[in-house]
Amino acid sequence: MSLSSPHLPDPAALLDADTAHSSVYNDPDLFEMEMDRIFMHTWVWVAHRSQLPEPGNFITTYVGKHPVIVSRDRKGAVHVMLNRCRHRAATVCEQAKGKTNSFVCPYHGWSYSLDGALRGVPHQDGYDGLLDKAGLPLVALRVEEYNGLIFATFDETIEPLADFLGGARKWIDLFMKQGGGWPVKTMGEHKFSFPGNWKIQLENTTDAYHFPIVHRSFLESVDEQTEDMLNFLGGEGYVEDLGNGHSVMVMIPELVDLDANLDEPIPERFTELAEELSRDYPPEQVRKIVRAVGGSGFNLNLFPNLACSMAFFRVLRPVAVEETEIRHIAIGMDGGPVCANEARLRLHEHFQGPMGFGSPDDAEAWERVQKGARGGEDVRILLNRGIGHEKKREDGNLYSDVSAETGMRAAYRMWLHMMTQGDAA
What's the confidence (pLDDT) of residue 376? Predict the structure, then answer.
């Protein structure tokens, strides 16, 4: 399929201010346009700094549909490179993560250094001096980092990462206070796929409306104090459009800044943890650690593929028009108390772990959206919740109540901008 084909879908005809056409979930041509116009031309999250603690560390992941390697070289610089040998295109690394001195293609043995430079070519004399190794490194992507979050892009012309994140940077800084005074680190992950379009997941982490319905079984599994805290619909929370498709959904306003209100009583569910921490830490630090263990009171959604979701990272990867891979990455305190990190892991397992309450319930809902959207082709998807009382802050950001679909509308505005910005040329 050529992207210049006159038969391509018209994104502008599929979206208006408060509805979307069902084909945004199931049109294969539209999906291919998204992979080209969005994922090839924006900043895509690829790793957290703690996943590459030492020279030689690497992980493998994807930018859109492209396999990439994220590595830290001997001088400490981070590189993101296409996972494709320059000879015959074989991937040069199949491990999810590890530590190495080089990447070697298993097909003909071409080897690359941690920064992607081509170092070795077996039997090079067969090229009769026509092979320029210096001109054949692994294809490099542009890389930038903000507060431990590492992003990459294929597009050398787009704005710096800090400008792209814009108003979301403040919220990233708040989210990273979950280190409790230590740096945040990743503590393992699991992944799964669901038979649905990637935008269904993009919408979900800015959707508080579903929480008491889909996650009723989870709410029945927690203590009364926690259930009251999570009964946030109708509360003082809000959803705010942060620009560039990013948004924040504040569910528990008193847990936005984990360093504030340290004099508040410690929740009953953390009493034993506080007692254990008190053996090694002064009271004020115990309160700070305990608040960090409980996680932030908001979901930060970074267009197009990362959610800093209360206490973990949720990463989406579009696999096909009706298949999306989700990774849930647990985070903790790098150098912090073992008991505190164990408590964070138990909380993560309870809701978003492989056997937790959250993932299966969410995945069932997402699958049903995809299935239902195949019927009633001309029936529009509603995105209008909260639009009637949406307001604008002094900085121009739109916001509405916590159950509003303001975050979805923000993401779709960016989606439409990126899908159409070249059409007028």
Answer: 87
Q: Is the pLDDT of residue 55 over 80?
A: yes
Please tell me which of 228-242, 366-380, 405-419 the model is most confident about, judged by mean pLDDT. 405-419
String of DSSP letters for 153-199: ES-TTSPPHHHHHTTHHHHHHHHGGGGBTB-EEEEEEEEEEESS-HH
What is the second-level CATH architecture of the domain 44-146? 3-layer Sandwich (2.102)
Return the CATH architecture of domain 167-418: Alpha-Beta Complex (3.90)
DSSP 223-280: -HHHHHHH--TTSS-EEEEEETTEEEEES-GGGSSTTS-TTSPPPGGGHHHHHHHTTT
Question: If you ran DSSP here, which 8-state letter would residue 318 be given?
Answer: E
pTM: 0.95
CA–CA separation, 383 and 20 (whole Å):
7
Is the pLDDT at 3 greater than 70? The verdict is no
Instruction: Average the pLDDT over 122-142 and give the result.
Output: 97
Q: Which amino acid is at 55?
A: P
8 A C-beta contact, residue 69 and residue 81: yes
Q: Are strands 323-333 and 381-382 parallel, antiparallel or unpaired?
A: unpaired
Q: How far apart are CA 334 and CA 185, in angstroms?
A: 5
Domain 44-146 shares a fold with domain 167-418: no
Domain edges within the chain: 44-146, 167-418
Specify the pLDDT at position 352. 85
Check the CA dihedral 283-171-248-178 and report its sign: negative
Using alpha carbons, select from 128, 62, 119, 64 the residue that is nearest to residue 91: 62
- Let me know: does 161 contact 146? Beta carbons within 8 Å: yes
pLDDT band at residue 1 under the 50/70/90 scheme: very low
